[in-house]
Amino acid sequence: MSNRPDPALPWETSQRRNGARRGAVEWWHDAVCYQVYLRSFADGNGDGVGDLAGLRRRLPYLSELGVDAVWVNLWYPSPMADGGYDITDYRDIDPLFGSLPEARTLIEEIHTLGLRILIDLVPNHTSSQHPWFGEALAGGPGCVERNRYIFRPGRGSDGDLPPNNWRSVFGGSAWSRAVEPDGMPEEWYLHLFTPEQPDLNWNNAEVHREFESVLRFWFDHGVDGFRIDVAHAMSKAPGLPDLGPADIELIGSAAHPDHPHWDREGIHEIFRGWRAVADSYAEPRMFVAEACARNSERLSRYVRPAELHTAFNFDYLTSPWRAAQMRTAIDKSLTTMAAVGAPTAWVLSNHDVVRHLTRYGRPQAEGPVHDLADHLLAGPFDLELGTRRARAAALLTLALPGCAYLYQGEELGLWEVEDLPDEALQDPIWQRSGHTNRGRDGCRVPMPWSGDTPPFGFSPDHAGSDPWLPQPQQWERLTAQVQQDDEQSMLELYRRALHIRRAHPALGKGALLWDPTTGPGVLAFTRPPGFQCIVNFRPDALRLPDHDGVLLSSVPLDSGRLPGDAAVWLTR
Ligand code: GLC
């Protein structure tokens, strides 16, 4: 029972600490938000795809887990060329997931449980099947409808070369050529992602008006906030100049100081407009940015007082499991975010990256690990080690000042499914990389809830279809049902940690003071009043300093010593 807290701690109370839950102003400063990747969370209608009905049935699980908010990934109508990040209607729900009335019910139910709800906003691109794009194609070169997107004549004598050398994040050119109904090729259009995701032209006032109206639509439906997809992409350099050689190497990153399409100054004006929309509501509304900036100072510009509220901390997510790198990521983020008065949004996994349990179960790189393809080169996977480190990482993350995002399944100890059969893969990265990069499906495999064979309660009994991605048989050990009765399980560790975090006055918002006496390979910090977190990244055990009690530990303590790759929360 090592991970149980001492009984009757003076601060433990059934009262919520300072109420990240509904009612509290600026709740995003210390909320724990759970990311529901809708298509893989719970299937209510038996078609093998997660949906609103499934999520509604599992809301008690989220409430009991102890999170404050739920970020529901894409639910909009979409042809699903990129898992739904290709939207045809920003004001409706795809029938695959449910209906608008059901979304309204879901929002109410989430609020009744005292939780908040965030949804995705995808402003950089629409689906190529969005009515606007149909009008742009039909209207031909020069029509006003085309000015909502980024169309250009091709280069070369026949215009058969793309307008510039920009590359799609998913592989290949970022340009595709439109074709007239009679088959004649005409202008090219820009898509930083798949050809089914044409980029919008944010120099067009109509695009601004449309998105402000979409924000209001969902705020009026009671949504508490938005996660802004590729928040660093909407502004493009005038004239659309070619990328330099260094930018081509670093396709997905904003490394270059004046990159022609990532992290440009023009973005901030858009966010100031959105902030004014959010601030016009009496009940607080918020934004969290998925933004890649070249350093944490640049990232902090997205969360200046009149702009977005928070931004995911990808430096933390991509750090290897090494004390020095983790500490650098933590320190830099805390300093740069504090300078603009914003909280840090800690995150270890999401639907785009290799699950951290798997990353940590491999030999650790000196620098960041992000891409599955790179990650596979890093050596064999040790499940026990990855699980042990993931347990420690949960305690580290939830002890840091600020808000935190959990990705569904991390609380069950799910690993990246790296052996999905080729024919099951659905991520467009697999096709567009010419089958060299297996993409992100491995972190999107449907949740195991109960039972000992797939679909593990993901779909109702006797469902007509298998889950949209196959689940490993070994997940029978990781179902929520199995873990809920096991005090040593990952699920119980998360529950205890979230419970303590909510009740303890030192956690969430507040100061972090590093302990100056710890040696290399250890992170130790105090959170006043009376809380200490120690993480041992080394393989050997560490003698704990004097303390008043043990609140929680990621593994059993060994006669007052903290074993390797483990973390502990102490009172002192
Ligand atoms: C974001 C999403 C990712 C999607 C991309 C394009 O990075 O998280 O899943 O493929 O944007 O919309």
TrEMBL record:
InterPro entries cross-referenced by the UniProt entry: GH, GH13_cat_dom, O16G_dom_2
Domain Glycosyl hydrolase family 13 catalytic intervals: 35-444
Lineage: Bacteria, Bacillati, Actinomycetota, Actinomycetes, Kitasatosporales
Keyword Glycoprotein found: yes
UniProtKB keywords: Glycoprotein, Glycosidase, Hydrolase
The EC number(s) this enzyme carries: 3.2.1.20
A family per Pfam: Alpha-amylase
Similarity field: Belongs to the glycosyl hydrolase 13 family.
Protein name listed in UniProt: Alpha-glucosidase
Signal peptide stretch: none
